[in-house]
């Protein structure tokens, strides 16, 4: 703030002393060429005014440099904090948000929206503050020097303000639309990249490009309109500035001619107000030139604000701690739907005692994965309850619940880093011996040792040496290392060949041994040794029992199993 005041003061004083210098020079010339006053003619006032003018110009440049350095550091720090806060917020949000929003749209918040905010903070914040102060300071200085010329200079202000407001209102509408369309485009690109193999397999590359063109055209159209309306402000201000300058010169000259001002004073005033006329319009011109940048930042800020409004996972700070699993897990009269209009689970009851393995089977859409989501409290039930050791999961702290639950997902995720880093992801302080032991139990150790760097082999999306099955085995090793008392396996053997399936099955047997577990199964032969099999259909428990018991009943499970075995 202090720098802004000094900066503004230096900028508005400099033209004043330029005018005084010209007035002093004019008086000196008049006195020098008049024999009667030649002896008293002096350049002292001119030199004094010129010296002060130069001091103010130099001071202005120095303050501007210091302010730019300080502002840049502050803005970089602020943007860094915003990025960290956004990422922290995402980590606290419910799974529902990620299930209902495209990855590309979420990424747009980090690149497009945050970048727009950073650009505005780095380039526009100082401009807005300094130019606003300069605008006010210039008006004050003009009226202090000469009211008539000041009124001439500011006469066009109401017209400028009204016209600018109309154009900026239009620009805001299209700049908001531009960011929305960029977000949609990013979502489409991310979707197409993730599905590239499917696109190539079905020969749909041309269709994919055509789809891209549709989204890209919407971005182009919105961007053109936004940039057109925001960009038209700058040349408009430039034109008004020249017009205003012409009026100031004309009126000043007229008043010199009719004797209102003396030639010396009039020349100094005209030159001074020519400077002030330009300085007066400079803030308006500068602010309109960066309007699109400011508006994009405001749009980004509004979009980020919607993230802050999103619900976070329902933490229970004073909840009970689940230290281990002593009794078992139950779903009691559980009702659930991902939206109010459609219920997925209709009052199901499932229980598993400590050390038992329960397999969930059923056709696609029967509710198997939904049960997994409720067990780990990715979602809360809409009716009934899920209990661990007879305690409702909603009364447990999320941290203690998830420390006791291990999940092996159908689509295994590997993170950037080494193989060892991925295995110890859930237990960062694990020793190398523990990592290797977990890998051996997961039947992946031998393969890892064939890699050039072994456990130190780097993993990344661009150069992955792991097949789908090997990724699954690393995921199982990760779960083994964390040693959770309760385990959920979500169709871990789907989408792999029979050899890999056998390895995964052995790894699953190792990790399940002695643990309470839910296994969501696609290939029924992998769960025939489960203590209990629960058959789900259309969100209801249809059958329940061991493999042998269900086969004897010759019901829905019997048909599923015999039909599947016919194709094995």
Automatic annotation (TrEMBL):
It comes from the Bacteria. It is found in: Cell membrane. It is a multi-pass membrane protein. Pfam families: ABC_membrane, ABC_tran. GO terms for cellular component: plasma membrane. GO terms for molecular function: ABC-type transporter activity; ATP binding; ATP hydrolysis activity; ATPase-coupled lipid transmembrane transporter activity. Residues 329-563 form the ABC transporter domain. SMART domains: AAA. The chain crosses the membrane at residues 52-71, 124-143, 149-168, 228-257. InterPro entries: AAA+_ATPase (IPR003593), ABC1_TM_dom (IPR011527), ABC1_TM_sf (IPR036640), ABC_transporter-like_ATP-bd (IPR003439), P-loop_NTPase (IPR027417), Type_1_exporter (IPR039421). The keyword Electron transport does not apply. Residues 1-296 form the ABC transmembrane type-1 domain. PROSITE patterns: ABC_TM1F, ABC_TRANSPORTER_2. Keywords: ATP-binding, Membrane, Nucleotide-binding, Transmembrane, Transmembrane helix, Transport. This is ABC superfamily ATP binding cassette transporter, membrane protein. It comes from Ligilactobacillus salivarius GJ-24.
């Amino acid at each position: 703030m202090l720098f802004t005041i000094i900066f503004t003061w230096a900028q508005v004083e400099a033209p004043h002393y330029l005018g005084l210098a010209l007035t002093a020079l004019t008086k000196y010339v008049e006195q020098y060429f008049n024999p009667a006053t030649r002896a008293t003619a002096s350049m002292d006032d001119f030199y004094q005014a010129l010296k002060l003018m130069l001091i103010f110009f130099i001071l202005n440049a120095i303050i501007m440099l210091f302010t730019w350095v300080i502002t840049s550091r502050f803005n970089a720090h602020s943007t860094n904090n915003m990025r960290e806060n956004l990422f922290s917020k995402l980590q606290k949000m419910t799974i529902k948000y990620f299930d209902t929003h495209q990855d590309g749209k979420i990424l747009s918040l980090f690149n497009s929206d945050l970048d727009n905010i950073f650009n505005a903070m780095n380039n526009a914040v100082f401009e807005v503050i300094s130019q606003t102060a300069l605008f006010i300071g210039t008006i004050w200085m003009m009226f202090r020097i000469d009211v008539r010329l000041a009124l001439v200079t500011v006469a066009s202000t109401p017209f400028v303000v009204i016209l600018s407001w109309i154009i900026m209102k239009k620009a805001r509408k299209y700049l908001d639309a531009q960011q929305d369309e960029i977000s949609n485009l990013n979502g489409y690109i991310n979707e197409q990249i993730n599905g590239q193999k499917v696109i190539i397999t079905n020969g749909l590359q041309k269709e994919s490009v055509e789809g891209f063109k549709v989204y890209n055209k919407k971005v182009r159209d919105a961007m053109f309109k936004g940039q057109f309306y925001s960009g038209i402000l700058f040349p408009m201000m430039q034109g008004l500035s020249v017009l205003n300058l012409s009026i100031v010169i004309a009126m000043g000259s007229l008043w010199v001619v009719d004797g209102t001002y003396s030639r010396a004073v009039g020349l100094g005033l005209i030159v001074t107000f020519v400077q002030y006329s330009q300085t007066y319009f400079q803030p308006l011109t500068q602010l309109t030139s960066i309007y699109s940048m400011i508006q994009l930042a405001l749009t980004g800020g509004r979009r980020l604000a919607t993230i802050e409004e999103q619900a976070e996972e329902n933490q229970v700070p004073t909840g009970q701690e689940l230290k281990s699993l002593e009794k078992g897990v139950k779903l009691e009269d559980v009702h659930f739907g991902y939206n109010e209009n459609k219920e997925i689970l209709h009052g199901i009851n499932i229980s598993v005692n400590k050390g038992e393995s329960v397999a969930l089977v059923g056709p696609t859409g029967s509710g198997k994965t939904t049960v997994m989501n409720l067990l780990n409290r990715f979602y809360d039930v809409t009716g009934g309850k899920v209990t661990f050791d007879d305690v409702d999961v909603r009364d447990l702290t999320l941290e203690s619940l998830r420390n006791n639950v291990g999940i092996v997902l159908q689509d295994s995720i590997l993170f950037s880093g080494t193989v060892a880093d991925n295995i110890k992801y859930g237990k960062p302080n694990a020793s190398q011996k523990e990592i290797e032991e977990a890998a051996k139990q997961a039947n992946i150790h031998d393969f890892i040792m064939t890699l050039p760097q072994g456990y130190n082999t780097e993993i990344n999306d661009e150069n992955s040496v792991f097949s789908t099955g090997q990724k699954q085995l690393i995921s199982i090793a990760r779960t083994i290392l964390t040693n959770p008392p309760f385990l959920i396996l979500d169709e871990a053997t789907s989408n792999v060949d029979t050899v890999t399936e056998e390895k995964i099955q052995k790894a699953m047997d190792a990790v399940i041994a002695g643990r309470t577990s839910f296994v969501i199964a696609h290939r029924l032969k992998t769960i025939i040794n489960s203590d209990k099999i629960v058959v789900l259909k259309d969100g209801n428990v249809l059958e329940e029992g061991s493999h042998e018991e269900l086969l004897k009943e010759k019901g829905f499970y019997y048909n599923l199993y015999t039909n599947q075995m016919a194709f094995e």
